[in-house]
């Protein structure tokens, strides 16, 4: 049997599936015939995000989920499992507060670690009982989980400075992926990470000086577009990746090799 990238029949859950990058990931999964549940808190935002694509409706559903609350995560998985077995979980959502490397409060530090790392742990822990016949977990890290920021990039745009707890948490995700790939391998559960590089949001892209600084750090000489990232999720969700686990796929235009 030759495996391919067709996701027909697969049920994919994605947290934060209506954000800047999440929207492109969600739409690409559906384009490849998956049925996708977007796990998030705002149904209004979900509906407005995908309002321009009514043809997605049959394959796209909303499920309330608060990633800061492990009970909410558990209940969302259970609600979906009552309707259909789950094949893939994508841990894409995160939250944090605080930015200063020197003046960050204890509360902001804890919030960032909880919102970027602990929430992923909760989701992995809670999905395991629903993967009794195997499944796939795809975690989302960051280039700053594998390399330190070049602070020269932020010199002219301090508002966009990458905070210390973000990279620390994302590095933790890479290790958490390896841990659970090893732990869950004999249950036919694949666990992998995707590490995005410079994918600034539309609002951040208004600062062309900052965008140019990001572009100079890449090998390809440009920032990433959401569609540049989406294909990696299709690959890891598909049967084409059945023998891949514990890996970190870096999609950064070559940033981390320079």
Automatic annotation (TrEMBL):
One of its GO terms (biological process) is fatty acid elongation. GO terms for molecular function: oxidoreductase activity, acting on the CH-OH group of donors, NAD or NADP as acceptor. Belongs to the short-chain dehydrogenases/reductases (SDR) family. This is SDR family oxidoreductase. It comes from Salinimicrobium profundisediminis.
């Amino acid at each position: 049997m030759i495996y391919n990238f067709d996701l027909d029949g697969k049920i994919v859950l994605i947290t934060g599936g209506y954000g800047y990058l999440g929207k492109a990931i969600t739409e690409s999964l559906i384009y490849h015939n998956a049925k996708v549940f977007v796990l998030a808190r705002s149904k209004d935002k979900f509906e407005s995000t995908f309002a321009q694509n009514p043809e997605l409706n049959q394959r796209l559903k909303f499920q309330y989920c608060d990633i800061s609350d492990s009970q909410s995560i558990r209940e969302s998985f259970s609600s979906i499992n009552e309707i259909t077995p789950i094949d893939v979980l994508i841990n894409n959502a995160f939250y944090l507060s605080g930015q200063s490397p020197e003046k960050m409060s204890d509360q902001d530090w804890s919030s960032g670690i909880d919102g970027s790392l602990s929430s992923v742990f909760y989701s992995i822990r809670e999905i395991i009982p629903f993967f009794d016949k195997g499944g796939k977990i795809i975690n989302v890290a960051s280039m700053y989980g594998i390399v330190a920021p070049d602070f020269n990039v932020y010199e002219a745009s301090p508002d966009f400075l990458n905070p210390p707890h973000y990279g620390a948490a994302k590095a933790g995700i890479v290790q958490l992926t390896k841990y659970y790939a090893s732990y869950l391998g004999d249950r036919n559960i694949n666990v992998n990470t995707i590490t995005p590089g410079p994918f600034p949001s539309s609002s951040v892209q208004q600062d062309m000086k900052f965008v140019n600084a990001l572009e100079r750090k890449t090998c390809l000489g440009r920032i990433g577009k959401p569609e540049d990232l989406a294909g990696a999720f299709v690959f890891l969700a598909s049967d084409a990746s059945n023998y891949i686990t514990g890996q970190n796929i870096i999609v950064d235009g070559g940033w981390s090799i320079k």
